């Protein structure tokens, strides 16, 4: 009887575990990969991976629509996909989209890939950032390196190695339907939902060689925020390079012409942004540096008469730094609205500028205290020496030494025009006798 009860409990326990597993909430994080591949794309994918981990999503869906971009960033993205702890599904979408150049390479790295019927992909021949072909020796080196890289990816995913080489060596570009016939993509579909249905339960090879079945859950959106848009704007290598050189030129101009302030402020902001765009500075560290720069400029505004240049520059640096620094994925999923950042920046800026105004006003009052306050005041001569040009005057009930270019007599009314130390410079009033 006791054994029967234990057996019944075990059956109930197994049933409950199965039920919990059945009804457990799984999700698939949907991430758009749009525009040129650059620091913004890398930042988005890294944050998406962190968010998928926090939410417990079973897979990640990348919606690709890109003309290509930075080769260095593409390598980082591929590395992230290959080492992901969950399957990464890639779909060229929407209709009319393309996965060109770097996008085609990323597509081959994905655990499961597909394309909508109205899309195309390919043309991954490496070129210089200016859009020109590289010198022959460099071009051969880049192509050979990319071909071996592509061979690794196509072998890992069981896709057409010859097509992978052709898009690099011959800049081949094909439609989605042709790519499926060439076994370059796994599925060609009409809708995103159809692709997810086909990808579900497909067995894929994960990092370390382990096999895993793809699980598709409810779609969770990963929106492209202001941080991505700013980084995307700077992702053009030529723009980033020009921003870097322009910032150095502005800083040099400020150092050689001190006191203008605006070139120094713009140059400082541009230098940090260009270092982030050139991937020489991590996005979060760039944000922290901008916030420190902003606070420093706001403090400087309190003591330096810059006509607002330092204050405005400080607020701009603070806003950009907050956008770069604050990553909602690393703070439990809470999203800080842009409006909150702007309000905080305005409050911060107003506080520092208000304190600066009071400090300057106090300093000016101190400068007017004492002898300086007597300038343009009336006084009466109380004693003169033999020359009649030196002696003492009474002003505001106090006796001060004076000097005058004119001869004065006791009782003469004079005006204080200046002072040298504690000696007043006076002139006789025209009405005095």
List the helices and strands and how they pair.
Elements: H1 2-23, E1 27-34, H2 39-55, E2 59-65, H3 71-82, E3 88-92, E4 98-100, H4 102-109, E5 112-116, E6 120-122, H5 136-157, H6 161-169, E7 173-175, H7 176-181, E8 187-189, H8 192-199, E9 203-205, E10 211-213, E11 218-221, H9 226-233, H10 237-256, H11 262-277, H12 283-303, H13 309-325, H14 338-368, E12 378-384, E13 390-395, E14 398-404, E15 413-420, E16 423-428
Parallel strand pairs: 1-2, 1-11, 2-3, 3-5, 4-6, 5-8, 14-16
Antiparallel strand pairs: 6-7, 9-10, 12-13, 12-15, 13-14, 15-16
Helix pairs in contact: 2-3, 2-9, 3-4, 5-6, 10-11, 11-12, 11-13, 12-13, 12-14, 13-14
What do you see in this structure?
The protein is of the alpha/beta class and 433 residues long. 50% of the residues lie in helices and 19% in strands. The termini are far apart. The strands form 4 sheets. Strands 8-5-3-2-1-11 form a 6-stranded parallel sheet, sandwiched between helices. The chain has a 5-stranded mixed β-barrel with strand order 12-13-14-16-15. A 3-stranded mixed sheet has the order 4-6-7. It has helices spanning 2-23, 39-55, 71-82, 102-109, 136-157, 161-169, 176-181, 192-199, 226-233, 237-256, 262-277, 283-303, 309-325, 338-368, and strands at residues 27-34, 59-65, 88-92, 98-100, 112-116, 120-122, 173-175, 187-189, 203-205, 211-213, 218-221, 378-384, 390-395, 398-404, 413-420, 423-428.
């Amino acid at each position: 009887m006791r054994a029967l009860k234990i057996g019944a409990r075990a059956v109930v326990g197994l049933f409950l575990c199965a039920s919990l597993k059945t009804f457990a909430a799984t999700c698939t994080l949907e991430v758009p990969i749009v525009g040129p591949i650059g620091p913004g794309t890398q930042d988005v994918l890294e944050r998406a991976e962190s968010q998928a981990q926090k939410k417990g999503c079973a897979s990640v869906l990348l919606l690709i629509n890109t003309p290509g971009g930075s080769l260095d960033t593409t390598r980082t993205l591929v590395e992230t996909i290959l080492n992901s702890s969950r399957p990464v599904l890639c779909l060229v979408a929407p209709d009319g989209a393309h996965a060109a150049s770097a996008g085609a390479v990323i597509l081959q790295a994905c655990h499961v890939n597909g394309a909508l019927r109205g899309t195309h992909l390919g043309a991954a021949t490496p070129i210089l950032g200016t859009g020109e072909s590289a010198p022959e020796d460099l071009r051969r080196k880049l192509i050979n390196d990319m071909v071996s890289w592509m061979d690794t990816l196509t072998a890992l995913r069981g896709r057409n190695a010859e097509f992978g080489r052709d898009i690099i060596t011959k800049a081949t570009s094909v439609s989605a339907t042709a790519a499926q016939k060439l076994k370059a993509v796994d599925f060609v579909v009409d809708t995103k939902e159809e692709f997810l249905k086909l990808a579900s339960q497909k067995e894929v090879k994960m990092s370390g060689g382990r096999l895993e079945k793809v699980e598709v859950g409810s779609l969770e959106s990963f929106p492209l925020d202001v941080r991505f848009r700013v980084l995307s704007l700077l992702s053009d290598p030529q723009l980033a390079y020009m921003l870097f050189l322009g910032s150095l030129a502005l800083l040099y101009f400020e150092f050689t012409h001190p006191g203008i302030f605006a070139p120094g402020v713009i140059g400082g902001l541009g230098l940090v942004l260009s270092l982030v765009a050139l991937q020489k500075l991590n996005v979060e560290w760039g944000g922290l540096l901008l916030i420190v720069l902003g606070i420093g400029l706001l403090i400087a505004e309190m003591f330096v008469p810059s006509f607002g240049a330092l204050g405005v520059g400080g607020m701009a640096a603070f806003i950009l730094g907050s956008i770069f620094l604050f990553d909602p994925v690393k703070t439990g999923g809470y999203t800080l609205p842009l409006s909150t950042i702007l309000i905080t920046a305005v409050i911060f800026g107003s506080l520092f500028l208000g304190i600066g105004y009071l400090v300057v006003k106090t300093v000016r009052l101190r400068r007017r205290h004492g002898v300086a306050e007597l300038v343009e005041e009336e006084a009466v001569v109380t004693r003169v020496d033999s020359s009649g040009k030196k002696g003492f005057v009474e002003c505001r009930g106090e006796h001060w030494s004076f000097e005058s270019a004119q001869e004065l007599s006791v009782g003469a009314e004079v005006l204080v025009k200046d002072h040298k130390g504690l000696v007043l410079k006076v002139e006789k009033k025209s009405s005095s006798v």
